[in-house]
Design brief:
Helix 3 crosses helix 4. This protein has one domain. The N terminus is likely disordered. It contains 4 helices and no strands. The relative contact order is 0.02.
């Protein structure tokens, strides 16, 4: 069987037989060579036009969109990192502000204590001053009252002496009696 096939191939019979057979099959199924060639050319023209005017712009548009998406993702990642950094900065600033607020509060308490102590000292000094002035006023009032009491006692002594002795005393007698009475009160 193989020997016959080789013999036919060497004589050119198989190739001619296949050619003849393909033409017969094509004619049997209604194959038209001119129509096939025109459809083949039309297919390549449409493919070329689609490639040039549709696929290339679409691919360029898709590449541009892909680049924009990649840029947007990169920007989003950068913004995320910036947001995390800003959050850390905010926490740091809040911690610093809290520390400063605590320091200011402590300083205010210390200043308030100093002011309170100074005000207490001032109040004590004012109170001591008021007490000293009151003592001075009291002593002055006491001296004035003693002086009035002496005068009144002297007048009463003179009046009593006048009634007891029954005579009218002269100005010299009155003065002498008043001085003696004052000396006795002073002692």
């Amino acid at each position: 069987m193989y020997s016959g096939f080789l013999l036919a191939a060497t004589e050119g019979g198989v190739v001619d037989g296949l050619k003849h057979t393909a033409t017969e099959v094509g004619e049997k199924f209604g194959f038209n060579t001119q129509l096939f060639i025109s459809q083949f050319i039309g297919f390549f023209v449409v493919a070329f036009l689609l490639q040039r005017f549709a696929f290339k712009p679409l691919l360029a548009l898709l590449d541009e969109r892909q680049k924009k998406i990649a840029d947007s993702l990169a920007a989003a990642e950068k913004m995320k990192a910036d947001l995390a950094k800003a959050d850390e900065d905010r926490k740091r600033v809040l911690a610093e502000a809290g520390a400063q607020a605590s320091k200011i509060i402590e300083e205010a308490r210390a200043a308030a204590a100093k002011i309170g102590e100074a005000e207490t000292q001032r109040a004590i000094a004012t109170a001591a001053d008021i007490i000293a002035k009151a003592k001075q006023a009291n002593e002055a009032e006491l001296a004035r009252m003693r002086s009035e009491l002496r005068k009144e006692v002297g007048r009463l002594v003179v009046a009593a002496s006048v009634q007891v002795t029954g005579k009218i005393l002269t100005a010299e007698d009155r003065q002498r009696l008043a001085q003696e009475t004052q000396q006795q009160f002073a002692a």
